[in-house]
Amino acid sequence: MKRIILLSLFFVFALANHVFAQTKVSGIVLDKSNQPVPFANVVFKGSNTGIVSNEDGRFYLESPNTYTALLVTSAGFSDKEIPLEKAVNYNFKIVLSEPEALNEVVIFTGKTSKKNNPALDILRKIWERKRKNGLYQFNQYQMQKYEKVEFDMNTIDSAFMKNKLFKGMEFVFNHVDTSDVTGKTYLPIFINESVYDVYGDNKLKKVKENITGNKMSGFNGNQQILSFVKDLYSDYNIYDNHLKFFDKSFTSPLSKTGIDVYNYVLKDSAFIDKKWCYNIVFYPRRKNELTFKGDFWVNDSTFAIKKINMGVTKSANINWVKDIYIEQEFEVENDSVFLLTRDYMMSDFALNKKEKSKGVYGKRTTLYRNHKFNLQKPEKFYKEEVNFIDNAVYQRPDEFWEENRFEKLNKDEQGIYKMLDTLQTVKRFKQLYNLVSILGSGYVEFKNFDYGPIFSTFGYNEVEGLRLRVGGRTYFGPNDPWRIQAYTAYGFDDNKFKYGVSGKWMVDKKNRVIISGGNRRDIEQIGASLTTTNDVLGRSFASSALFTTGSNGKLTNINLSNVSVEMEAKKNFVVSAGFSYRTLESASQTFSLDYYKTLPSVLNPAGVVESKVTQSEANIQFEFMPNRKTIGYGVERDLVDSPFSHFFVNFSYGLKGVLNSDFAYEKVQLFYRQPIIIGPLGRTNITLETGKTFGTIPLGLMSVIPGNQTYFTIENTFSNLNFYEFVTDQYTTLQWNHDFGGRIFARIPFMRKLNWREFVGVRAVHGTISDENRAINASGLPYNAPEKVYWEYNAGIGNIFKVFRIDFSWRGNYLNMPDAAKFAVKGSFGFYF
Fold first, then answer.
1. Radius of gyration of the chain (CA)
2. Are 371 and 358 in contact (CB under 8 A)?
3. Residues of the signal sequence (predicted)?
4. The pLDDT of residue 357 is above 80
C-alpha cells in the first residue's frame, strides 16, 4: 500500500512539471473541534481568484500566477492568512478560530438572516435590473460563438494505469493532465469543437444559430454519445429563477426565491476591470436540494454580474453526477453594458459521490465575441431549417480552426485528436467499445449489419409459451438514407414461426420525405395502446412479458401489411399518409373475436357469425413536437433527452370491399402530452388521449382501454385494469403524473441520505359504445364501457439503488367488476439523473 501511495505521489508531482499553473493549493478547512467548515471562502491573497469549500470543507485552488499567501474566511470565524512557501501545496489542514475580541465584526453565523442583510439588499437590486442588463438592452443582436466540449476519465492513478483493461493502450496515458477545478488527474477521451454565427431578436423572441464549423474525434458517429454531448448544450441564463441541467431544475443563486433556499454573505468589495464590485458568497440552507454553493462579483451601479463561480452541492439529489461546476465571465462593453464572454461548465459523472471515486468529466467551454446590435433581420430569417446538411461544415481544414478558434488549444488538447484516432485502431479498445455499445443500443454490431435488439430475445405468453426471437437491421452508419429491419420468432407451445420485415427510404433529405412499408405475421395483444401508428414492427410489452398477473391468453393472430409516406413539412411538424391491410383471428380457444356478419332474425335465429376480420384502411396523420431536439439527419434519428410537447392527430378510413375488406368506418384520434417543470417542486406530465369511431365495427377494431397485467409500469396504460376489461368506440383518457424529485423526503432527517424520490399520479377514462356495435358482438366477451368515469391513483418511490422505482396503485371505483384488481404493485428499472 505504501508503495502505491509513493508511486501516486511521484506521479502527481511528475505531472506538475507538465501543466501551466504556477500556484496550486488543496486542503480542508476545520474548526477547533476538527469538524469540517463547509462553504468557507478561499482566495489567493491580493487577487479575485478564489473558491468556496465543499460540504466536507475540502477545496482545490489553482492559478497561472504566482501567489505567496492564502486568505480563508467564513461566517462566524476570524479571517486566517496562510503563507505559501512553495508553488504546489497539497493537503493543507486549515483550522479557523472564533473571534477573540468583542470588537471583531461577525455579521452572520450558520443560517444568515433574511432581515438587515446587506447582501440581500444588493440581490434585490439585481432582480430589478436583470431584464435591463446584457443582450436584453437591445432589440436585435449578432455575435460569434465558439464551443468546445470534452470528456475525460478522471482520478487517474498508477494502479489504474496498470490495469489489464488497458493492455495495448498504455500510450494514452501520455496525455494525462490535472484539472484546475478539482486538482484531479484526467485523461481526455473525446473532444468536439464548433463555431457558430448567432442572431437574436428580443422583440420577436427568436434566436438562430448557424453552425459554420464542427470538428470531432473519439467515438465519432456514435449516436448515443452524440445525444449525450448535445444534452450538455442546454442553454441557461444565470438570471433565470431556475436552471435546468440533466432534466433537473436547480434554483439559481440569483433567483427571486433564492432567499428561501440560500444563505448570502457580503464578503468583499474591489475594483475589477476598473469597475467597483461587491463579492457575495452563497451556500444552501438545507441539504439534498438542487442548489449551488459559490460566489459572484456584481457591479455597484448597474448591478450586473461581472463574474460568478458556482458548484452543485454534493448532497444534491441527482444521480451519477458528483459535481457540476460553472464559471461565467462578463466584459464591460461600455459604462452600462456587461456582456457574457466566457461560459465554462464541468460535470463529474461517477457511480458514487465518494471523494476518491473514478468518473468522467464532461466539460464545455463557450466563448463569445464580435457583438453587433440593432441590425434587424426579417422574421422569415429565423425560420428553422427542417434538415440542414452542409458536409463542408464537418470537413473544415486546419487553417480554418487556426483562424476561428477564440483561444488556442493547449499542448495536451492539441494531441487529443491524434491520440483518439489512433486509439480507435487498437483491437482491445474496439472490444471494450463494442461491449458498451451493445448495452447502450441493444444491438450487436457487425459490418453493415446489427443483430438485435437482444433485450427482445426471450418472451412468454399462454399461447406461445416460451418465445425466442432473433432479428437485425442494416447499418452502414448513423445517417443512413435507408434501413431494412427483420425478425423471426418461434413459440414452443404453438410450434409456429412468426416473422416481420420492414424498410424505410428517405427519398428527399431536405424535407425528410420517407417511404416505408412492411409485413408482419405474429401473435399480438391488441388493445395494449389506444393511439395507433404506422410502425409495422411495433409490438407491445404485454404480448411477451416473462411474468404476468392473471391470464394473458386474450391474444390475436395478426397479419399486417403497411405502406406509407411521410414528410417533415416544417421543423418538428410531420405529415404522413398510409394504407394498411390486416387480418385478425383469435390465437386462443379461450378467447373469441367473433361478430355477426348477419344479425339474428326470425328467418335465421342464429344469424351468420364470422371469426376472422379482414380490413383495409387508409389514414393520414399529423405530428407536432415543438422544441424537440434530434441527432443526425438519416432515415432514423435519435432524440436528445429533453422535455418537449407532443401533439398527434390520426384520421383513419375503413375501406369496405377493397381487397375483400369487411367494414366501412371513420376514426379520429388525438394524443397530447405536456411536460411541465415546476421549478424546485419537480416535474409534471399531463397526457390526454381522445378518439371516436363512426360506423359499425367488431371487437378486433374497437378501442380497448389498455390494461396492464405485467409486474412492470407501462406508459399510457391503467395499472389496475385487465386486458379487455373496458371496450369502447368513443373514449377520453387523462393522466397526470408528478415527480417531486425528492423534495419531500429531503425534509425528513432519517430518509434524507437515501435520496429517494416521490411520485404521485391519477389516471381517468370515460367511454361509450354505440348500440350498433353492441348488437354485432358475438365474441361472448361482455362489452363494458366506462360510461361513469373510471379512475385510479398511484404513489411511488423512485431512485431506489439509483435504478429502481416501485409504484403502488389503487382502483378508485368499479370495485365489483369480475376479477377487479383493487390494488397493484408495479416496478420499473432505468438510469436516471
1. 31
2. no
3. 1-21
4. no
169: which 3 cell numbers?
Answer: 493502450
* Strand bridging mode 140-154 / 58-63: unpaired
Say yes or no to pLDDT of 276 above 60.
yes
Q: What are the pLDDT digits (tens) for 765-809?
A: 999 999 999 999 999 899 999 999 999 999 999 888 878 899 999
8 A C-beta contact, residue 788 and residue 765 = no
Q: DSSP letter string over 117-182?
A: -HHHHHHHHHHHHGGGSGGGGSSEEEEEEEEEEEEEEE---HHHHT-GGGTT-GGGGGG-EE-TTT
What is the enclosing helix (H) or strand (E) of 774? helix 771-775
Cell reading at 673:
402530452
Across 695-729, the runs of DSSP E, i.e. the strands, are 703-704, 727-728
CA–CA separation, 404 and 367 (whole Å):
11
d(CA 571, CA 22): 50
Confidence of residue 107 (pLDDT cuts 50, 70, 90): very low
Say what the pTM is: 0.75
Q: Are 790 and 764 in contact (CB under 8 A)?
A: yes
Backbone angles phi, psi at 614, to 5 degrees: -115, 125
Does pLDDT of 683 surpass 60? yes
Report DSSP letters for 265-288, one per residue.
EEEEEEEETTEEEEEEEEEESSSS
Whether residue 7 is predicted with pLDDT greater than 60 in this model: the reply is no
Whole-number Å distance between alpha carbons of 68 and 51 = 17
What pLDDT shows up at residue 228? 61
pLDDT of residue 253: 93
d(CA 567, CA 511): 6
What's the angle, vertex CA 795, arms to CA 793 and CA 799, rounded to 5? 145
Tens digit of pLDDT for each residue in 402-425? 888 888 887 667 777 777 777 777
Give just the sign of the alpha carbon dihedral 726, 727, 728, 734. Answer: positive
* Pairwise CA distance, residues 622 & 570, whole Å: 12
CA 826 to chain centre: 23
Q: What angle, rounded to 10 degrees, do the helices at 427-441 and 223-231 form?
A: 70
**Average pLDDT of the chain to the nearest whole number:** 82
Provide the 8-state DSSP code for 511: T
According to DSSP, the residues that pair with 197 across neighbouring strands are 144, 210
Q: Which residues contact 371 (CB under 8 A, 6 or more apart)?
A: 141, 142, 143, 333, 339
Would you say the C-alpha torsion 75, 79, 84, 85 has a positive or negative sign? negative
Distance linking the first and last C-alpha atoms of the chain: 35
Domains of the chain: 19-100 (2.60.40.1120), 140-238+361-441 (no CATH), 442-829 (2.40.160.50)
Q: Which stretch of DSSP H or E encloses residue 422?
A: helix 416-423
Distance between alpha carbon 208 and the CA centroid of its chain, in Å?
Answer: 23
